[in-house]
UniProtKB/TrEMBL annotation:
<keyword id="KW-0813">Transport</keyword>
<comment type="similarity">
    <text>Belongs to the bacterial solute-binding protein 7 family.</text>
</comment>
<keyword id="KW-0732">Signal</keyword>
<feature type="signal peptide">
    <location>
        <begin position="1"/>
        <end position="23"/>
    </location>
</feature>
<dbReference type="GO" id="GO:0055085">
    <property type="term" value="P:transmembrane transport"/>
</dbReference>
<dbReference type="InterPro" id="IPR038404">
    <property type="entry name" value="TRAP_DctP_sf"/>
</dbReference>
<protein>
    <submittedName>
        <fullName>TRAP dicarboxylate transporter, DctP subunit</fullName>
    </submittedName>
</protein>
<dbReference type="GO" id="GO:0015740">
    <property type="term" value="P:C4-dicarboxylate transport"/>
</dbReference>
<dbReference type="Pfam" id="PF03480">
    <property type="entry name" value="DctP"/>
</dbReference>
<dbReference type="GO" id="GO:0030288">
    <property type="term" value="C:outer membrane-bounded periplasmic space"/>
</dbReference>
<dbReference type="InterPro" id="IPR004682">
    <property type="entry name" value="TRAP_DctP"/>
</dbReference>
<dbReference type="InterPro" id="IPR018389">
    <property type="entry name" value="DctP_fam"/>
</dbReference>
Length: 331
């Protein structure tokens, strides 16, 4: 009897050991909506490569990347994450209003002078606090990723705010962006990124706003006759994961993944500067769309018309936070 019990114990132990040895690696699905040759696309692929080469994660984790809205659209990805259907995403900061309206700060027109100021605010204590501000909703921000400053596009030159009057502009799901276009008498239309090209092609919308890399990689310049270099706002990302998934990982795995993510984000940020300049030039060279850069005087008119949006959202975002973001423009 004792011998039989011993054999069963040995068999169970060996079985468990062999199961552990053959445990399937954790699969991390990284879903995003842009092309691979963009800051976000390049960052996601870099992360996948870093994880694959990381001895600390060997046989433990594999990353699968799904670009171009193959898996989920912007708005669906957040729900999918809570259901465990996807583990990583990097939505634009304009898509978090439902989860923390303070993040609308990044949409205020003409708030940041340039990407250096955006970066300075993101790295500040307040910027970092926003990364962990959605934990109660089930999301953890692992870092910010840059894309770049937004430019306006339409089928006519947009030099003055009056030029935008009556035009339908596709926007992301942010009320600040809606208010921004209402300020110039435009009609904002909230639509997912995956639909923008067709909406432009069929003239269901007249215009839009996006950084150079999104315009170029999605060929928006082929279906819009004019692009105005306005740098009127920023389009950046937050890399997010589900709190349940992240906190459920072994500590060593989590630490290794965070290290690889930091490296991938640094690479993506480096690429954002490069792609911004390269893709702007590629659009100009293509001659498919006329690129016009606002003079300082022209730009000031857009500032004057759009800036009242700050006031409309100062209670939602917090006047203090807006002041702190403005300080990032100094120095
Ligand atoms: C993205 O860059 O992820 C999409 C931006 C947009 O929806 O315009």
């Amino acid at each position: 009897m004792k011998k039989a019990f011993l054999s069963i114990t040995v068999a169970v132990t060996l079985g468990l050991a062999s199961l552990a040895a053959h445990a399937e690696p954790t699969v991390i699905k990284f879903s995003h909506v842009v092309a691979e040759n963009t800051p976000k696309g390049l960052m996601a692929n870099k992360f996948k490569d870093l994880v694959a080469a990381d001895p600390a994660l060997k046989d433990k984790v594999t990353v699968e990347v799904f670009p171009n809205s193959q898996l989920f659209d912007d708005d669906k990805v957040m729900e999918a994450m809570l259901l465990g259907d996807v583990q990583l995403a990097a939505p634009s900061l304009s898509k978090f209003q439902k989860y923390n309206p303070q993040l609308l700060i990044y949409d205020l027109p003409f708030l940041f002078n340039n990407m250096a100021a955006v970066d300075k605010f993101q790295q500040s204590e307040d910027g970092q606090k926003l990364l962990t501000s959605m934990e109660d909703k089930g999301y953890i921000g692992l870092g910010y990723l840059h894309n770049g400053m937004k430019q306006l596009s339409a089928n006519k030159p947009l030099k003055t705010p009056e030029d935008a009057k009556g035009l339908k502009f596709r926007i992301q799901s942010s009320d600040v962006l809606a208010a921004q276009f209402e300020q110039v008498g435009g009609v904002p239309v909230k639509k997912p990124f995956s639909e923008v090209f067709t909406l432009m092609q069929t003239k269901a919308i007249d215009g839009s706003e996006n950084p150079w890399s999104n315009i170029y990689s999605k060929k928006f310049h082929e279906v819009q006759s004019d692009i105005t270099e306005s740098d009127h706002g920023v389009l950046d990302y937050m890399v997010i994961t589900s709190a349940e998934f992240w906190n459920g990982l072994d500590e060593d795995v989590r630490a290794a993944l965070k290290k690889d993510m930091d490296e991938a984000v640094a690479y993506g940020n480096e690429m954002s500067t490069k792609k911004d300049a390269e893709d702007k030039q590629a659009i100009i060279d293509s001659k498919r769309s006329a690129v016009y850069t606002l003079t300082a005087e022209e730009r000031q008119k857009w500032v004057d018309v759009m800036k009242p949006v700050w006031d409309k959202f100062k209670d939602t975002i917090g006047a203090d936070l807006i002041d702190k973001a403005l300080k990032a423009n100094e120095g």
